[in-house]
Specification:
This protein is an alpha/beta fold and about 300 residues long. The chain has three domains: about 5-50, no CATH class; about 65-210, 3 Solenoid (UDP N-Acetylglucosamine Acyltransferase, domain 1); about 215-300, UDP N-Acetylglucosamine Acyltransferase, domain 1, CATH 2.160.10. It is about 15% helix and about 25% strand. The chain is built from three helices and 35 strands. The chain has a twelve-stranded mixed sheet with strand order 3-6-9-12-15-20-23-26-29-32-34-35. Strands 4-7-10-13-16-21-24-27-30-33 form a ten-stranded parallel sheet, with no helix packed on it. A nine-stranded parallel sheet has the order 5-8-11-14-19-22-25-28-31, with no helix packed on it. Strand 34 (about 260-265) and strand 35 (about 270) form a beta hairpin. The mean pLDDT is about 90.
Length: about 300
């Protein structure tokens, strides 16, 4: 698969028996000769992989070690693995898969075709839409980090809001999404969360966002649609990140970000200004050496 001419050197030495190339690269006089010409090689490869390596789906049924509460609704063709616990009033749609040791709290609702990985915990007040995928070890709908100082110690504030994941959301392993304090925590349609992401209480994440490994969003922040937060980005509470914004890896967002902006750094600001600042610091080191040399020469003449 040749997706960019950046990889021409590797393509030239490839021993692949068949490659996917774009029409513009079909006549290249190098690399493998057997070529499948497609407009979008990556999309075509995705279809090929799905065809030859279809995903495994556990056999339908309820494992005998599962523990089911009362007033539960179970859809058709579901798979409930060993050690699963369903508390009272749980609602599960059709073709849902629950891996080993999944725990669903009272009243949890899961839409059709969802896949919940081993060891996940969905607390009371969690609502999942259709085709949601949650990888192993994630915790959804737990109480947020809310405390009130009473003059001598911190009193815990109960959280009574919900944790809502809309359709087609993916959640990575060991990610935690807190329930709302009074309002709801909401993850929008099609948004994808990587492993080890933390979403605080009352946060609203828009549709089709990408939140990568180690992202942390403090309570009541609002993330717009199609936002990209690269690895280990931190967003302070009660801020707004506008639609289509992009935040570079490791950045710390301490003020709201306008729609369409590209930010990076700590504190995060314009990505271009951040790069300019880094370049300036790089030039300061040799300048400092020149200044120190001049000082030594001046002192030697005294």
């Amino acid at each position: 698969m040749l997706t960019s001419r950046t990889y021409l050197t590797a393509f030239a030495h490839s021993r692949a028996s068949l490659v996917l190339v774009r029409p513009a690269d079909a006549s290249l006089d190098l690399g493998p000769r057997a070529r499948l010409i497609v407009d979008q090689p990556q999309q075509a490869m995705r279809s090929i992989v799905d065809y030859f390596f279809p995903p495994h789906r556990p056999q339908s049924g309820i494992h005998p070690t599962a523990m089911l509460g009362s007033d539960i609704h179970l859809g058709v063709d579901i798979s409930i693995g060993p050690g699963v616990v369903l508390e009272d009033e749980v609602q599960i749609g059709d073709r849902v898969v629950l891996g080993p040791r999944v725990v669903l709290g009272r009243g949890v609702s899961i839409g059709d075709d969802a896949d919940i990985g081993a060891g996940c915990i969905l607390h009371e007040g969690t609502v999942l839409g259709a085709r949601v995928r949650v990888k192993a070890g994630a915790v959804l709908g737990g109480e947020g980090f809310g405390y009130l100082w009473n003059g001598s110690t911190y009193d815990r504030i109960r959280h009574i809001g919900r944790c809502i994941l809309e359709d087609d959301v993916d959640v990575g392993s060991h990610t935690c999404i807190d329930r709302g304090s009074i309002a709801d925590t909401v993850i929008g349609t099609g948004t994808k969360l990587d492993n080890l992401v933390h979403i605080g209480h009352n946060v609203r994440v828009g549709a089709h966002c990408l939140l990568m490994a180690g992202v942390g969003i403090a309570g009541s922040a609002i993330i717009g649609d199609r936002v990209i937060l690269a690895g280990h980005v931190g967003v302070s509470g009660h801020l707004t990140v506008g639609n289509d914004a992009r935040i570079g890896a490791g950045s710390k967002v301490w003020s709201s970000v306008p729609a369409g902006a590209s930010y990076s750094g700590m504190p995060a600001g314009s990505h271009q200004e951040h790069l300019r600042g880094r370049a300036t610091i790089g030039r300061l080191t040799p300048m400092l050496r020149d200044v120190e040399s001049l000082v030594r020469k001046h002192r030697g003449k005294e």
